[in-house]
Amino acid sequence: MKLYVFLLLSLVSLLADMTYEGGRSVSGPYLEALGAALLTAGGLSLGEMISYAFRSLGGFIAQRGGSRGYWSILLLGYATNLAIPALAFAPSWEAAFGLYLVERAGKGLRTPVRDAILAEVSAGMGRGKAFALHELLDQMGAILGPLAVALLLPRGYGVALLSLSLPALLSLLLVLLAWRSYPRLESARPAPSSPAKGLLPLYLSMALAMFSFAHWGQASYLLNELGAERVAMLYAIAMTVDALSSLPLGIALDRLGLRVLPLLPVLTLLSTLTLLYASPLAFVLLWGTAMAAIEVLPRAALAVLTRPEERGSAYSLLYFYMGLGWASGNIASAAFPQMAPYFLLLSALLSFGGLLLYTKRI
Fold this sequence. Notes:
The two termini are 33 Å apart. The protein has helices at 2-24, 27-33, 38-42, 45-64, 66-79, 93-121, 127-152, 157-162, 165-181, 200-211, 216-222, 228-256, 263-277, 280-305, 311-335, 340-361. It is mainly α and 362 residues long.
């Protein structure tokens, strides 16, 4: 039954990614078409900060509500994906920007809950491989969504965005099926008064790594001179690289342990530098690899470092720190582009050093 629920939730993520990654793949060009400026596109990273802030709420709220609380928060979080097809009706860039933020808030609510359930139902699979397999299926949706949008863009943004309502609705049906199949969760047991101890250095290092990672909203704005259809295709390529990179990274974590974590800030920094100084193809190859590392390594690490009843709050705090770093770095880069390479390099170096020290201690 646990494997069945794991596969159901992985399919839910596939469908959800079709929806929001399809919408995000053209977020920069769409906002520009509605009259927004570069700083607004960079400000989409605020959505990540909101998302990660809501993650700090989602896990704690779910733990207070027991198993029903976990599944209810998960369902509500996936329901907000309907904000993406609603973009087709946005009358202004302000309205579209708000809808992007609504979707991010919903992702924030559901993500720590989903990861806590995944960590529970994947026991015995190998933490790295389990989260890598989930990411692989997840990224299949992240590839299909942008491809669908790219194919439908000649008919207009409205048609392309509305097509994403189908996977959004199907994901909700699968969440209900998973809930019915596995209604009682070990993760929903009463948690300690505070999450697992000793995680603050990991949280801070992850925040610094994310500071040096370009958000696709800002990247797609800078790449928009290639045309919206090509930008969407580049995003699909990045998601393909993400999918292909996930399993090797997960296997590496299972075999080498948490010593692979310092690889993450190296990848985030290199991907952003290629956006600024290299070809679009080089950028998307590194960006996709960095995204795979972000999605697999810290999630699997927390599953190793925490007990089931601690995971909701532990994942919530991890995501909050990561979102804070991501938003801060992208806004700073957009506001001070000439200084960006220097403070991005500094943050990545601090993250790398912090993770080296942390992994030697545990």
